[in-house]
Amino acid sequence: MSTPVEGESLFTPRNFAAFLLVSVIWGGTWLVIRDQIASVPASWSISYRFIVAALGMFALAAIRRERLSLAPGGMRWACLLGLFQFTLNFAFVYNAESYITSGLVAVMFALLVVPNAIFGRIFLGQQITGPFVVGSAIAAIGVALLFAHEWQSSPATLSEVLLGAGLTVCGILSASAANITQAMEGAKKQPFLALLAWSMAIGVVINSVFAWATSGPPQFDTRTSYSLGILYLGLAGSVVTFPLYYGLVRKIGAGQAAYSSVIVPVVAMVLSTLFEGFVWGPLPAAGAVITLSGMVIAMRGRASPPPRRATPEP
Questions:
Q1: In the predicted model, is pLDDT for residue 307 greater than 80?
Q2: What is the DSSP track for the chain?
Q3: What is the pLDDT of residue 254?
Q4: Which end of the chain is more exposed for a tag (fewer CB within 10 A), N or C?
Q5: What integer pLDDT is reported at residue 2 of this predicted model?
Q6: Is the pLDDT of residue 7 over 90?
Q7: Mean pLDDT, range 233-250, rounded to an integer
């Protein structure tokens, strides 16, 4: 049996630069998603996004001269990622933004670190500390305050706000399942870019079948902003960020990689304020501060990199 080796630190220059780039780009995707669902069914918009993303990922693998085929058993991992990350996660998130603001969905996603830690404990043997539990509880209180503000200020009914919250929670759980899948040894044995490319392609198939079954033939918005949004989400928001993010998951663990969800909502809330008319007041300000403070406490509770299992010798 191989001796476990320690994962890398988040704060090495290369890892931290990747972390910041992913956080800033993803912070801007939430508002773009809002425009994507304004006139086209969510599943078709997701399909178009990952058609662009899958082609871009295959092209990136070819440019780097990495192999495009998967190792034995690889298609199983690609199907799992295609289902959890590139189908369920995005379907829930896109539909959630039909009911609540993009910034609020992004703030809720700050709680991604919680199921990541729980699933990491169950499936990867990673430890959960007391400060992490306390910080997560504080963050949950902050999110509750933000939702109270959303209910008070939004024209949406309470049931619609709760539906948006429920969809977001489902998206968080799906994303966490994908993160843990990516961190497992079987997935880490696969060619990295090829696994992402095939996962995205499988996501396209699943989303397209679902879209046709529920919304009819393909629908497309001819506005320039819609097409540019597809390109931004497919290239910057997927081809650039997913290799960086899942690279971090493999290097530093799913729990630490999810720390990006503290920066992402800050960017998203700023954009929501500028373009969606989100109005700040004592309640949402307190909710945002409490949420982010709680996540910082939780992050510090998981400051040391989790152990990574070494690949057994043949």
A1: no
A2: -PPPEEPPPTTSHHHHHHHHHHHHHHHHHHHHHHHHTTTS-HHHHHHHHHHHHHHHHHHHHHHTT---SPPTTHHHHHHHHHHIIIIIIHHHHHHHTTTS-HHHHHHHGGGGHHHHHHHIIIII-----HHHHHHHHHHHHHHHHHHHHHHHH-SS-HHHHHHHHHHHHHHHHHHHHHHHHHHSHHHHTS-HHHHHHHHHHHHHHHHHHHHHHHH-S------HHHHHHHHIIIIIIIIIHHHHHHHHHHHH-HHHHTTHHHHHHHHHHHHHHHHS-----HHHHHHHHHHHHHHHHHHHHT-SPPEEPPPPP-
A3: 64
A4: C
A5: 35
A6: no
A7: 88
pLDDT at position 314 is 31
In angstroms, the Cα distances linking 183 to 39, 57, 121, 155, 240 are 36, 20, 12, 41, 19
- Short-list 150, 142, 148, 143, CA closest to 101: 150
Tokens matching residue 258: 């999810």
Tokens of 309: 């299992």
**Token pair belonging to 134:** 């306390």
In this prediction, residue 278 carries a pLDDT of: 75
* Structure-token pair, residue 264: 């992402």
Q: Residue 252 is which amino acid?
A: I
Predicted pLDDT at 91: 96
36 in Cβ contact with 154 (< 8 Å): no
The number of residues making up the chain comes to 314
- Entry pTM: 0.80
Neighbour-count burial of 126, counting CB atoms closer than 10 A to its CB (0-12 exposed, 13-18 middle, 19+ buried): buried
- Average pLDDT of the segment spanning 245-273: 77
